[in-house]
């Protein structure tokens, strides 16, 4: 039986050809729509590329190029389960941390043949994993999938820590929440959170730990303020929600580790460590309020360690896809199709005007990413021609001001470019080796529950405190 026009669905493995797409593009309404579209003026791209890129060799470097790189990356999967209800699923979220020992890697790279076992010893990995209920999943005596999810988010953060003798991930989160609560004493939030269940008139109160709301009588948790439960899809899969959970946990994990360095008196070692996180230094969607307080805590710790080390923290986000990556790739190709228009071993520092004109069109007076980012982006083309879109954490108001793009606004830019040149991946040209290892560990976690950070402590004492 052949598939006919008018049938509801094609057969398995039967796909539409390009012909319908061509007909759509030739449609008169589509053509009229295209004629009304705003087009970006790319005529000055080549000139701008030649003038604006900065030679990395001209950037100031310090004598503190990190010899340890700690990469953080996450993964999530929607897993269908059988509990008698249709569409029931759980989300399995992992966040991996991989420590790469740069001195050992450089020493091995000088050899003609590298022992794979010895190379693996240059990395230490661990993975945080958690299961979160989704559609049609109810745990314990909870009354709905949403209350089940809220309870599990609280419990998973409460039971997770990088070190056996350190605060939990929940404690770290509640430090940030306390900042918000303290700010709200004199400046109440303009949009109080709504009741968690079926009465939108009542408002929930934000507090720490587990408590009862005086307005609703519901059992609440400090983690409810993340509002991730609002993304739960009660009618189907909740991929967006699990992705948001993963992203939030990754950023909380970064703050968690920095606080561990402070509490364990390891601040002098931070000059030897670079922190790299997959994606932007940002939090989006319902949990975006975290950004302001993540930034506050990172700046506090940076100020403490800088008094000891004399240099800023090295915190890098790296985008592997998206509009910034696409635009950078476009810049590297001339209108005639010639490649390598961007000089190798160079950087281009992005400001607000350039972003809004060329990448994310906007006429808003608000700076790009003001409410979602705790770092700023730039373009980097390495010595071997690979293109990266890194983002550096900001530590003061001058660095956050993206109306301008000057070298001092990108802390330790020269050191970071040296590091990126060392870490570039030949397998994935828009990523770096530590993130690739972290992603692999997050996708297929082999070191679950392993207290890798206890081993890191030994490395830090041996390499950092002894230096």
Order of helices and strands: HHHEEEHHEHHEEHEHEHEHEEHHHH
The number of distinct β-strands equals 11
Q: Count of helices?
A: 15
Mean pLDDT over the residues = 82
Distance between the termini: 76 Å
Q: Please compute the radius of gyration using only Cα atoms.
A: 24 Å
Shape: globular
Poorly predicted runs are 1-7, 45-51
**Beta strand %:** 15-25%
Largest sheet: 9 strands, mixed
The helix/strand class is: alpha+beta
* Count of separate structural domains: 1
Q: Residue share in helices?
A: 25-40%
How are the strands of the biggest sheet laid out side by side?
Answer: 1-9-10-11-8-7-2-3-4
Q: Could you please describe the fold and organization of this structure?
A:
36% of the residues lie in helices and 16% in strands. The chain is an alpha+beta fold and 467 residues long. The protein has one domain (54-465). Strands 1-9-10-11-8-7-2-3-4 form a nine-stranded mixed beta sheet, sandwiched between helices. Helix 9 links the parallel strand 7 and strand 8 (314-319). Residues 1-7 and 45-51 have low confidence and may be disordered.
What's a concise summary of this model?
This protein has 467 residues and is α+β, with helices and mostly antiparallel strands. It has helices spanning 19-25, 28-36, 45-52, 102-109, 116-120, 145-158, 169-186, 239-263, 290-309, 323-331, 352-358, 397-400, 413-423, 433-443, 452-465; strands at 54-55, 68-80, 89-101, 123-133, 210-212, 219-221, 273-278, 314-319, 346-349, 375-381, 387-393.
What's the layout of helices and strands?
Blueprint: H1 19-25, H2 28-36, H3 45-52, E1 54-55, E2 68-80, E3 89-101, H4 102-109, H5 116-120, E4 123-133, H6 145-158, H7 169-186, E5 210-212, E6 219-221, H8 239-263, E7 273-278, H9 290-309, E8 314-319, H10 323-331, E9 346-349, H11 352-358, E10 375-381, E11 387-393, H12 397-400, H13 413-423, H14 433-443, H15 452-465
Helix pairs in contact: 6-7, 7-9, 8-9
